[in-house]
Structure formats: structure tokens, C-alpha cells
TrEMBL record:
GO terms for biological process: chitin catabolic process; oligosaccharide catabolic process. It comes from Horornis vulcanius. It comes from the Eukaryota. The lineage of its organism: Eukaryota, Metazoa, Chordata, Craniata, Vertebrata. GO terms for molecular function: chitinase activity. The keyword Heme does not apply. The gene is Ctbs. Coiled coil: none annotated. Residues 1-116 form the GH18 domain. This is DIAC acetylchitobiase. PANTHER family: DI-N-ACETYLCHITOBIASE (PTHR46290:SF1). Keywords: Glycosidase, Hydrolase.
Amino acid sequence: QDHVCSLPKVPFRGAPCSDAAGSQVPYATIMKQVNSSLSGLLWDEVQKAPFYEYKDSVGQFHQVWFDDPHSISLKAAYVKSRGLRGIGMWNGNSLDYSREAVAEQQTQAMWQALTP
């Protein structure tokens, strides 16, 4: 209920943001899973990022954090307002580049969000 997800201590594996804390999920999977998740779409006002929670087939609780066009646009606007020289994002190739109409719309919205 309080949306706190504890992570087990795992030895450092050689890179910040490694798979020690979790694993990467493709954006297409997130978009398909979020609406049927336990929590539905949630928003963290501190991180300015969406997340959701679900239980897998063996009852294990999971929390998935991601960026969407809204969170990306807030970050891009922050960069622009501070006169910074750019913004980066993690794995644009995880977007859904299939020819499905919804996927094309979601992918286009993500790329457009980078330009405030």
C-alpha cells in the first residue's frame, strides 16, 4: 500500500545501474502490462516518473519504473530552462518499432518529448 519496494543486497557487478537491482524491460512490454497491473499507472512526484506494481505467476511482487512522454518532457524542459547542453536517455532501442499503429504513436511521442 505504501509502494515501498525493498531490494536485496547483491554484490556490485562492475557497472552502475547494473542488473544487481533488477532487469530492463522493453517499453512495449511495459505498455502492455501497465493497464492490467495490480496498481495501474502510478506517479512519483519526487522522481517525476511513472511506475506500476504487479505480481508474477508465482506471487512475487515487482515494481517497474520507467519514463514516458510526460516524464521525458519534464526532464527535457528542465534541461532547457537551466541552459544545459543536452539530455540523454537509456536505450532508445527498447521502444516498440513494430508497425502497429499504437506502437508507432507511442514511439513517436517518446522521441518528440525530447524536444521541449
